[in-house]
Design goal:
Length: about 90
């Protein structure tokens, strides 16, 4: 048993290991770049979504007011003609 074949096999092992480590390093760099790109895209989407918060709140107030008006109309339509119509309550919190 000579030590020369051991060195050759160790050398082959080390070359293969170094090649795999280099391939893993490149793959990790690619993965990191793709995750950073995804993060920027998500941040952009969130920022665009936040721009519509005020508009959504206005439409929500509109639909809430329409719903309140509809419920008041339905309640008043069930009253007899002798009864007075109720006026909608004023919301002072706005």
């Amino acid at each position: 048993m000579s030590s020369k074949p051991n060195n050759k096999s160790s050398s082959y092992f080390e070359k293969q290991r170094d090649a795999l480590v280099a391939e893993i390093s490149v793959s990790m760099d690619t993965l990191l770049n793709n995750v950073n790109t995804l993060n920027r895209s998500l941040e952009g989407a969130i920022a665009v979504g936040k721009e519509f918060d005020n508009v959504a709140a206005i439409w929500n107030n509109f639909y809430d007011g329409m719903d309140q008006t509809d419920r008041l109309f339905q309640k008043n339509s069930r009253l007899s003609p002798e009864q007075d119509f109720e006026t909608p309550p004023v919301d002072s919190s706005r």
